[in-house]
Design brief:
The complex is a heterotetramer. By secondary structure, chain B is of the alpha/beta class. In chain B, about 35% of the residues lie in helices and about 25% in strands. Chain B folds into 2 domains: about 230 residues, P-loop containing nucleotide triphosphate hydrolases (Rossmann fold); about 240 residues, P-loop containing nucleotide triphosphate hydrolases (Rossmann fold). A two-stranded antiparallel ribbon of chain C has the order 1-2. Classes of the chains: A mainly alpha, B alpha/beta, C mainly alpha, D alpha/beta.
């Protein structure tokens, strides 16, 4: 019974973690960027979606769409205002671009956090559930919304998989993550590829954001944690490895849920953190990473 | 065995499956200079790293003045008396030349915060010796390339090592500078140090070395005086190959009208190193033109300039139009397709996927016909279609790389070092494929090679590139007697 | 060392120092109070720069070291209550141990991986403090019984002397033989080793020194503010501020980061009228600096000097 | 760059000093510092209410002819920023007293400074017992600090009293599970819960503390359900929206009562999309509830001026300013020690009840007195988008009402 509960509760939250992390890792894989404004972009989607749905009365679904759109815009802004200028700057030595992108996106994330807090206060908000009511799974009363969220997350991830492995554009994306130079030699414009990956990233982060708002509720004060957890999950799974991130997301999600049930709700985040340190230390390339 | 300052014996190094160094051994006596030569991928640089402890040998011994140092951490080996002059290094940008030299003399201690006084004086002496006295207080970023190399040399001298390893001592230097450096290195002999010069070919180091050891594919192929090694059969085969047969088609170049590709006075600078100097060449429709030259001569740079991958001075015209300012991808789509020496395959993707990416811009029908044609040209590929490119053998990877490039239906195929590190059997297959290509299609090819046997049979015309300049141009048939010797 | 005297950075710093000395006679106690805090931040930033600028290790968690120092000192003071300087020393010591712990992964991991470990270290410390609330006061923090002084001017002098001494030591170190070796190791470990330097040893030392000063400053800050809390000495936001300060002032200059920190704190205070938006403005400015003067303010000046 | 950094403020200081010097000839205003945080609902109410209080007082001729002048600062909920703001208020803006913060961490960080700088300081929202304990233990050092809101212990007490009247009596509830965030302010709260809930007739079946950063509450609710209590007694402030939403989504059949600070804010219904329906929480006051004759006028005026209703810290701050003004009047001076002495004598009716402070011999020195006829706080419930007051009976304007998914003991057994 308890095991089943953990199984069910852990599933949706893990799926959400996964969805949040997948875009992040894809972005790194293809363009080598670790976007520390990640949490900020998710929260933009959540807050604007919430306002569109409630304040502007567009309803949950339309509102969510608006939220995702907002995240997309934010993702473009991150690329064009922060990341690309840094990558192209002559004044920044090649070997230091990485740390500069990290610092830059970090600052950008703070700007987003404070800016959003200015308009929406730092109270967490929640989208109305996409569907109301609860479903009884073998005696475990589960919000139907939670099930739907897990489903949507997986559909989104599935679509991503199809895009990358079945479409021409996706193949190019995959190729870029393996060997960008080779791609240029075949006459592909890397700029287009990057634009595409930032688009995908924006949409994924947006969906994750609105789902989070509808599932658990989210506010500007969560931004730090959201970024940190995406970062850790991605590193744990192996930077750039999509499947790795998914595995890691479930490991973390279940570990947290299990801790909350079996050990103590106060210790919820700790085992995951310790595990992360161990993984990074003993297997720096991550669970499924190659290097 | 003779009492040498540096004694290397039975050195072995494996990287995963491939054996990079196989049972290499030699001795260098005090005041002796040994040249270690071999083409790229022959493992000579690895040998140097193994001696210095940058890589750990799987087996073998390295003795300095009788002391076994194999497997030690680099800094202890250095303290044991081995110094190295890197080809590329990153000096301290915020410190002056003088400080950079002093750095090399500091003790490896956390407590000695201030450098002792005599160091200053010594550093100045060394600076004078290598000819840096003019620029003592300049910062490295503001120095010309030759002076940077001088500084590296100075740092090595400052450590007063018993053994000095020098990696490609003359790369990127002008004739005058080469002379100056030769004298400095000769100076080591006078000081009774043991010197190991690592370079691509004998020619560069003949004047300097007492003995030469030639490597190929990780193995020792010859040892002896420079003259002996140059005369050695195997060495000749490695560099020149054996007997050369050629079938040029001079009529092609004789045709009137403007050439398809026209390179005029192109120069390229890497930082401060002159990688390409006022190079001019042209390629006509359907011609097979070979650019032969050793690694580091500038072939790859030339090709990258043509493909828009590096900035250059001078002009490159494609089918009458200036290429300057076009993005690499645009040029590639415009018909100039490069198959680089690094191959740049998509390792985790299947052979078929690699080819499909090459044919992205084709219609489905075109792609199908291309597939059929290429699969016929390289029969091994269809058998491997589902396999990940990473898992292919070197030869198969090379064929895939070429096939992928051809998939794009190029008007000009730029083929850079296709033979790099490949076994003779594979070379034959590649060679067949090229002649096939030449016979059956109107394609134009610009081939860069250091392996002349491979390059010449397919060439209508040959250019020889040396020290960033074109030094010879002409009919492959005349190559052997006119350029061959100078080439070794 | 001879050249250290020729360094423009040193002269800029000296001029600013003289200025700082003169302040108590003509600015309000409040501004002295703000500067006092900014000086401790200055030391944080300098210690961070020693790791990043010289050893080339990107430490996202300087507050891990600072927090260790601060809380050790605070807890010691509230329990055994030895003289303040003993508590501060203890804090510095514990921070140093923390530094070694941090160095272990650093010597194995590269770039983002190490960065993440430092980040996690902070989160773990943060959680630990909440869990052991009985001694640490949990997230609402702890008041320490003793403080350095109530008098703003006295506090100012203490902080000024502190930053001056730390600055001198760190700057001297960075220009000393060891500093050179460290810089070489950071820039090209292989070549440094080939010159006969034990890179591991020097990097480890760098971590210890950086940790030592972070811990010291952290402990001092506690005894100045009279409270230690997650929000004031451990929170990631503080770490970010320190990093911004270093980048703003100019990495690899030791003194630049200190100046950056002071500017940052003052700016934050100046813009207090903007309420919550001041953080936004400060971050935006910092971002602009990163984009347009990646060398930072002092770094920019020095670069000019070198080119000339 | 750094030059103007410190030059500019000095100029301000100089100018300000000059201005006040001249003003002093006439009636020098009483300067009071207010430290809040704009981006938090409670923090914003705090500064706004202070402004209203000052305006009201000044409109009625000020204090013995002296106007009240406020200096407002934003501390971003950071102790460090608050300390700096406090220093600025004292040494640059020369305030005579400071009203600040609803966050215990910040209040505790400010307390030693009010002691060092001898500046009376009232916190109008923090709950930690520590604040008044320190005053009690080191009276001479900390006597300048006053606790303008119920301590955790008294919040717990008022909740026990309220739940007894609201749940135990009418619904025959017998058992409860305590669910509180693992924070310093809840430690004393829980201690008092443990002892007063049984007295109130609710046997405590279990006691769950969780990490304040928790976002997924499903496990916690399931654990609680397994215990089959009649009611969940909360002690949450850092979280609020999330547990409430999941309580609704998961349709946890057990009512939530106790202290949920976020639920006292007017935006809570919107933030939770109505999941708040049926949530019961303690608060200082509620809109449209006449705890005293002053309550409604204030909340309506606030509503008119700022568009939403004040959170609990708004009411207490509004009163605190009046308490200060009243103390200044009685002390006839702004001298810190005289002021403290006067404040200790405070007996004044405000918007949340009748203000008195415990003396130095009471356990909670300088905290406001709790009890019927003094200050009890109110207990309210979200019903269809409105906060309905249920307790104390005198102020009640509605009855307890639970959403459909709640099983009441009557039904269940």
């Amino acid at each position: 019974m308890l095991a089943l509960q953990i199984l069910i509760d852990g599933f949706a939250i893990s799926a959400l973690y996964g969805l949040g992390a997948v875009g992040f890792t894809l972005l790194f894989g293809v363009s080598g960027v670790l976007n520390l404004a990640h949490g900020g972009i998710m929260v933009i989607a959540a807050l604007i979606g919430w306002q569109a749905a409630g304040g502007l009365g567009l309803g949950t679904w339309l509102g969510s769409a608006v939220g995702v759109l907002a995240a997309l815009v934010a993702s473009y802004a991150t690329y064009f205002v922060v990341v690309r200028p840094i990558q192209r700057s002559r004044a920044i030595p090649r070997e230091e671009t990485e740390i500069f992108v990290l610092t830059g996106t970090l600052l950008w994330g703070i700007m987003i956090q404070v800016g959003m807090a200015y308009f929406y206060s730092d109270n967490p908000v929640t989208m109305r559930p996409l569907i109301d009511g609860v479903t009884n799974i073998a005696g475990v009363r589960t919000p139907t919304n939670e099930i739907l969220i897990a489903v949507i997350s997986w559909v989104a991830i599935g679509l991503l998989w199809l895009l990358v492995n079945r479409t021409r554009a996706g193949k190019a994306l995959l190729a870029a993550s393996i060997n960008p130079r080779g791609l240029v030699l075949l006459g592909f414009e890397l700029d287009r590829i990057y634009l595409m990956v930032w688009t995908i990233y924006g949409v994924l982060a947006g969906i994750a954001g609105v789902l989070l708002a509808s599932f658990l509720g989210v506010g500007t004060s969560n931004i730090g944690n959201l970024t940190a957890s995406a970062f850790s999950i991605v590193v744990m799974g192996g930077l750039g490895s999509v499947s790795g991130s998914l595995v890691a997301a479930y490991v973390v999600g279940y570990l947290e849920t299990f801790t909350a049930y079996e050990i103590a709700p106060t210790l919820r985040p700790i085992p995951a953190l310790i595990l992360l340190v161990l993984v990074v230390y003993l297997r720096p390339q991550g669970l499924l990473g190659r290097r | 065995m003779s009492q040498g300052l540096l004694e290397v014996a039975g050195l072995h190094k494996r990287f995963g499956g491939l054996v990079a160094v196989k049972d290499i051994g030699f001795t260098i006596a005090p005041g002796e200079i040994l040249g270690l030569i071999g083409p790229n991928g022959s493992g000579k640089s690895t040998v140097m790293k193994l001696i210095m402890g940058i890589e750990r040998p799987n087996a073998g011994s390295v003795r300095v003045g009788g002391q076994e140092v194999a497997g030690w951490p680099t800094h202890r080996i250095a303290r044991a008396g081995i110094g190295i002059v890197f080809q590329h290094s990153r000096p301290l940008h915020r410190q002056t030349v003088l400080e950079n030299i002093k750095l090399a003399m500091l003790p490896d201690s956390l407590l000695r915060l201030a450098a002792s006084s005599h160091i200053e004086a010594r550093a100045r002496e060394i600076a004078d010796l290598v000819g840096l006295s003019e620029v003592l207080y300049r910062h490295p970023p503001t120095l010309p390339f030759a002076d940077l190399r001088r500084m590296e040399l100075a740092k090595a001298i400052a450590r007063d090592p018993k053994v000095v390893l020098v990696d490609e001592p003359f790369a990127g230097l002008t004739a005058a500078e080469v002379r100056a450096f030769s004298d400095l290195i000769a100076g080591f002999r006078a000081q009774g140090r043991a010197v190991l010069l690592v370079d691509h070919n004998v020619k560069g180091v003949t004047a300097l070395v007492d003995r030469v050891l030639a490597m190929y594919l990780g193995e020792r192929v010859a040892e002896g005086s420079a003259a002996e090694v140059m005369a050695n059969e195997t060495v000749r085969r490695v560099y020149l190959g054996g007997k050369i047969e050629t079938h040029a088609r001079p009529e092609l170049d004789a045709r009137p009208g403007r050439p398809l590709l026209d390179v005029r006075g192109v120069s390229v600078l890497y930082g401060k190193a002159q990688a390409l100097q006022d190079v001019s060449l042209h390629v006509r429709e359907q011609e097979f033109v070979s650019v032969v030259g050793l690694n580091g001569a500038g072939k790859t740079t030339l090709f990258n300039a043509i493909c828009g991958l590096v900035p250059y001075f001078g002009n490159i015209a494609w089918d009458g139009q200036e290429l300057r300012g076009r993005k690499a991808a645009t040029i590639a789509r415009g018909g100039i397709v490069q198959c680089p020496e690094t191959r740049e395959l998509f390792g985790d993707m299947s052979v078929r996927e690699n080819l499909e990416l090459g044919g992205q811009h084709l219609t489905a029908a075109e792609r199908r016909s291309q597939f059929d044609w290429l699969y016929a040209l390289f029969p091994i590929l269809p058998a491997r279609a589902r396999q990940a490119a990473r898992t292919l053998s070197g030869g198969e990877q090379q064929m895939l790389a070429i096939a992928r490039a051809l998939m794009m239906k190029p008007r000009l195929l730029v083929l850079d070092e296709p033979t790099l590190g490949l076994a003779p059997v594979i070379l034959e297959q590649l060679s067949k494929a090229l002649s096939e290509l030449r016979r059956t299609t109107p394609i134009t090819v610009l081939l860069g090679e250091q392996n002349v046997t491979f390059a010449l049979p397919h060439a209508d015309r040959v250019y020889v590139l040396e020290h960033a300049q074109i030094v010879w141009e002409g009919d492959p048939a005349r190559f052997a007697e006119e350029a061959g010797a100078g080439y070794l | 060392m001879a050249r250290a005297l020729r360094s423009p950075a040193l002269w800029i710093a000296l001029v600013l120092l003289l200025l700082a000395v003169s302040l108590p006679w003509w600015v309000s106690a409040y501004i002295l109070g703000v500067l006092t805090v900014s000086y401790y931040f200055g030391v944080f930033a300098m210690a961070w720069d020693l790791l990043f600028g010289f050893a080339n290790e990107v430490n996202f968690g300087p507050t891990f070291l600072i927090g260790l120092g601060a809380y050790t000192a605070g807890i010691l003071d509230n329990t055994l209550g030895p003289p303040i300087f003993v508590c501060v020393a203890a804090g510095a010591l514990v921070a140093m141990i923390g530094g070694v712990l941090l160095a272990l992964p650093a010597l194995r991991l590269r770039g983002p991986y190490f960065g993440l470990v430092t980040l996690v270290a902070v989160l773990l410390l943060q959680n630990a403090i909440v869990i052991f609330a009985s001694v640490t006061g949990g997230e609402i923090g702890m008041n320490v019984n003793d403080i350095l002084s109530v008098n703003a001017v006295t506090n100012y002098w203490i902080a000024l002397v502190f930053i001056a001494v730390c600055g001198a030591l760190l700057f001297g170190l960075s220009r000393s033989a060891v500093g050179l070796i460290l810089q070489a190791s950071g820039q090209d470990a292989i070549e440094a080793a080939a010159l006969g330097f034990n890179v591991t040893k020097h990097k480890l030392a760098a971590f210890c020194v950086s940790a030592l000063f972070s811990g010291l400053a952290g402990a001092m800050l506690v005894f100045y503010e009279g409270t230690a809390s997650v929000g004031t000495v451990i929170d990631i936001a503080i770490a970010v501020q320190i990093i911004i300060a270093a980048v703003l002032g100019g990495r690899r200059t030791i003194l630049g980061p200190a100046i950056g920190a002071i500017i940052l704190v003052l700016a934050g205070e100046e813009l207090r009228q903007l309420g919550q938006l001041n953080t936004f403005v400060v971050s935006a400015v910092a971002l602009a600096v990163i984009l347009f003067f990646p060398d930072g303010l002092l770094g920019h000046l020095l670069r000019r000097g070198e080119r000339g | 760059m750094s030059k103007q950094g410190w030059l500019r403020p000095t100029l301000f200081a100089g100018a300000a000093a000059f201005a006040f010097a001249t003003a002093a000839q006439a009636e020098e205003p009483i300067r009071i510092g207010v430290i809040g945080e704009e981006s938090a609902v409670a923090g914003a109410s705090l500064t706004r209410a202070a402004a209203m209080a000052a305006d009201d007082i000044n409109a009625h001729g000020g204090v013995a002819g002296r106007k009240i002048e406020l200096f407002t600062y934003d501390d971003h909920s950071s102790a460090a920023d608050a300390v700096r703001a406090f220093q600025r208020a004292v040494s640059q803006d020369h305030v005579v007293a400071v009203v600040a913060t609803y966050i215990s961490e910040v209040a505790l960080a400010l307390e030693p400074w009010s002691a060092r700088l001898h500046i009376p300081f009232i916190t109008t929202g923090a709950a930690s017992n520590e604040i008044s304990r320190q005053v009690h233990e080191h009276y001479d050092r900390f006597k300048y600090t006053f606790h303008g809101w119920l301590t955790s212990a008294f919040i717990a007490q008022s909740i026990c009293d309220a739940e007894h009247d609201l749940l135990v009596e009418p619904f025959r509830m017998k058992t409860a599970v305590i669910m509180s965030e693992d924070a310093a302010w809840t430690t004393p709260l829980d201690v008092r819960y443990e002892e007063c809930l049984p007295k109130a007739g609710l046997q405590v079946l279990d006691h769950i503390r969780f990490n304040p950063d928790t976002t997924d509450f499903a496990p916690i609710f399931r654990q609680i359900e397994a215990k089959k209590p009649d009611v969940i007694i909360t002690g949450i402030s850092h979280v609020g929206v999330q547990p409430t939403v999941q309580w609704r989504d998961q349709q946890v059949p057990i009512p939530m009562a106790g202290q949920s600070s976020q639920a006292t804010t007017s935006t809570f219904w919107k933030d939770t999309n109505g999941a708040a329906n049926g949530v019961i929480t303690a608060s200082a006051a509620a809109p449209g509830v006449a705890i005293t004759p002053l309550t409604i006028p204030f909340s309506e005026a606030y509503q008119k001026r700022f568009g939403d209703s004040p959170s609990y810290s708004g009411y207490t701050t509004y009163d605190a300013i009046h308490v200060l003004a009243d103390a200044v009047k009685r002390a006839g001076s702004t001298d810190a020690d005289k002021l403290v002495a006067a404040m200790e004598q405070t007996d004044m009716v405000g918007t949340v009840g009748r203000w008195q402070f415990y003396g130095r011999n009471d356990q909670f020195t300088h905290a406001i007195k709790y009890g019927p006829g003094l200050i009890t706080g109110v207990t309210l419930q979200w019903q269809d988008g409105k906060q309905v007051t249920l307790w104390p009976a005198g102020a009640a304007n509605g009855k307890v009402k639970f959403p459909s998914f709640i099983h009441l003991p009557a039904a269940s057994n």
